[in-house]
Predict the 3D structure of the following.
Amino acid sequence: MGKNDKKGVLPLFKSLPTFERNNEHDVFVLGIFEGETLHPVVEKVDSMLNNQVSRLKKTKKIAKQGALTTVYPLEEIKSEAVYVVGLGKKEDVTTESIREVVASVGQQIKKDNIVNTGFLVESFTCELVEESDVAVLIGEGLALGTYTVVDYKEKSNEVDKKLETVTLYGKATETLQEAAQVGYTYGKGTNRARKLVNTPGNLMTPTDLAEEAKELAEKHGFEYEVLEREEMEKLGMGALLAVAAGSDQPPKMIVLKYTGDKQSDELIGFVGKGLTFDSGGISIKPRENMHQMKMDMGGAAAVLGAMDIIGSQKPNVNVLAVIPSSENLLNGSALKPGDVITSLSGKTIEVRNTDAEGRLILADGITYAKQLGATMLIDVATLTGAVLIALGDCTTGAVTNNEELLEEVLEASVETGEWIWCLPNYAPYKKMLKTSDVADLNNAPGRLAGSITAGLFIGEFAQDTPWVHLDIAGTAWQSRATSLGPLGGTGVMARTLAQLAINKEI
Ligand code: BES
Ligand code: MG
Ligand code: ZN
């Protein structure tokens, strides 16, 4: 647990049908659309504010998407301040834009040390996004926007005041409260993943990652298992062991299982790359940005974040999480270019580049998930620099052997606002993997189509099991703050994986 975590401090969502002048808040939040007359409920509040909103709207661009204007009521209502939030043109509004707007409100709430807030839910609605959707997005956006990266300075950034009460003003009061709580759970799961990614490598070792998983298991009642080096040796997890050989930190194969439907044989397998620091090994990386490689467990973080959401939402499906975890360092016993290793599956691999280590540990992760009964597989990994070149830092790259499962993953990602684009899996790419004279597979066939060959390498171990690979090397980290959160780990795919599992509920 980080020092900023206080167990059990959930902002409490309340709901009331109408806003009255004596409802007391540190800040009251309402939304306005560009090029529209004020919503009747906003008009009513505006009259309590001496028409400040309508007057400002005439001269300033306060309705522009993402604009946030603070208005101070003069005794007429009991809130200390009112945030007037620009939602943009009605035809441009999407769930993403509302999520972003609310998250930027969250960031302001954090800056202003707000403890108690109220939202005029109705003012955020339009044809595409109804009240209960807005409530979900308020819960999610507030959790995402109020997230802070823990630092380790003498004078730390720890905030002493946290959001405690959020009152939602809207019609279906009970539904709103529940919807906001669901959204909040998604946001908090994402923040859990962000925290794991942001934690420095010396404080987030494979052992620490296993500890995090154990905490989650205790929180939600998951089955929990961690394989140690000796057990890996017995089972023949040669690929994970080979990567771990260069490090003093013991590797871990971390397993969580959630059973929501005892009757079903279906078992959704999530496999996350848990490389807690990637130096490249003997094929060492350049020094400039090596420090960023603490994020190389972003896949593991996404899987754990998703399990947190799933544990709270309790869908009636079964989910297996498998996280192979190691460091990729170099010492006298380290894996070397040219070494041939035998994976858990029995397939042999010639290691042409020790920096292509993610696919090695995932090979054993995928095989182990299959041995544990996974009937479909989604692996998540910060796998290739090449995916950044192909898709930038806003889109996750996918590779699959099953269009149907891909479709389900894409559907979930549309709901969560996390973009995914699928890369081709044509036969010539697969042939590029079979270019070793001495082993079944070559772990680094060259620069061409680097993200595709990396994905398909993992696919060799999924075999006939429906499988989708998600390369988050670009999306797991943002090098500047966005409206959804600060610079650093994004927790990307925690929400999409959870949504996928929840959508499978019958
Ligand atoms: N962890 C890296 C990929 C990465 C790059 C993650 C940038 C996040 C940001 C991975 O292990 C790696 O080193 N991949 C190599 C593969 C190559 C040697 C075939 C790469 O992308 O250069
Ligand atoms: Mg590497
Ligand atoms: Zn790596």
About this structure: The pocket of zinc ion (ligand 3) is lined by residues 275, 278, 296, 357-358 (CB under 6 Å). The first helix runs from residue 40 to 48. Confidence is low (pLDDT under 50) at residues 1-9. Residues 199-505 form a domain with the Aminopeptidase fold (CATH 3.40.630.10).
